[in-house]
Specification:
The protein is of the alpha/beta class. Among the domains are: 86-216, NADH:ubiquinone oxidoreductase Nqo5 subunit (Beta Polymerase, domain 2, 2-Layer Sandwich); 217-250, no CATH class. 22% of the residues lie in helices and 18% in strands.
Length: 250
């Protein structure tokens, strides 16, 4: 009996090529599932998963503790009293009162400045005493203040300084619009120009002044600009037109 040997080609996976041919062309034959790819995750073993502890939930961020309420601010100290005139009765005032009596009407201190309100008619006498006896040898300023609602509307103010004592003193007299104030030009020469300025701006007349006339404005100017009842827009229209050839523009 003859024996025949049939050689069937075999594929690398151990299957014959003929078997692979029929498997590929048989629609009813199910294809074996492909082996899982290396990069795909393998199925999770339930028993292994059960043995692993569950992952911890994310920690809830801690809520910062509330700040304690701020302490109440300490109360503010009371405001210092405003400086103002205070009655003055020192050695200087006593000497003036002993010398001139009732002519020293008032005495006070305001912002470290000694002030004497004196009788208008005795101004030259008291000014001379201030220069010679109390050594107030410099008349630093002579000016005025207008209080139109007051009967004696003008304060005429003399500010004096003693170079020897390094001390200041203010003399003040009251006057109505019609009353004349004695000139102290003979006591302090500088009063000549200062009294002219007060006359020019306020209209105060200084009795005994050697040449009382305007010093800042033209002689023909009407009115006195630093009087409170002088309208700031008022100008001597006729003077401006006549001398400058223009309208005042106010």
């Amino acid at each position: 009996m003859l024996k025949a040997t049939v050689c069937v080609p075999v594929a690398r996976d151990g299957r014959s090529l003929l078997y692979s041919y029929f498997m590929a062309n048989d629609p009813e034959e199910k294809q074996p599932s492909a082996s899982p790819k290396k990069d795909e995750p393998s199925a999770v073993n339930p028993s292994a998963a059960a043995s692993e502890p569950a992952s911890k939930p994310p920690a809830t961020p801690a809520i910062p503790a509330a700040k304690p309420p701020a302490a109440a601010a300490p109360p503010r100290p009371p405001a210092p009293p405003k400086e103002g005139p205070v009655a003055l009765e020192n050695d200087l005032v006593k000497r003036y009162k002993e010398r001139f009596g009732e002519a020293i009407r008032e005495a006070w201190i305001d912002r470290k400045q000694a002030i004497l309100v004196i009788a208008r008619e005795r101004l030259v006498e008291i000014a001379t005493y201030s220069r010679d006896e109390e050594k107030f040898d410099w008349l630093s300023d002579l000016t005025a203040v207008d209080w139109p609602k007051r009967e004696q509307r003008f304060d005429v103010v003399l500010n004096m300084y003693s170079l020897e004592k390094n001390e200041r003193l203010r003399l003040k007299v009251y006057a109505t619009a019609d009353e004349r104030v004695p000139s102290v030009q003979g006591v302090w020469a500088t009063a000549n120009w200062e009294e002219r300025e007060v006359y020019d701006m306020f209209g105060v007349v200084f009795e005994g002044h050697p040449e009382l006339k305007r010093i800042l404005l033209p002689d023909e100017w009407q009115g006195h600009p630093l009087r409170k009842d002088y309208d700031i827009l008022t100008q001597d229209t006729a003077w401006v037109r006549e001398n400058l050839g223009i309208e005042s523009g106010q």
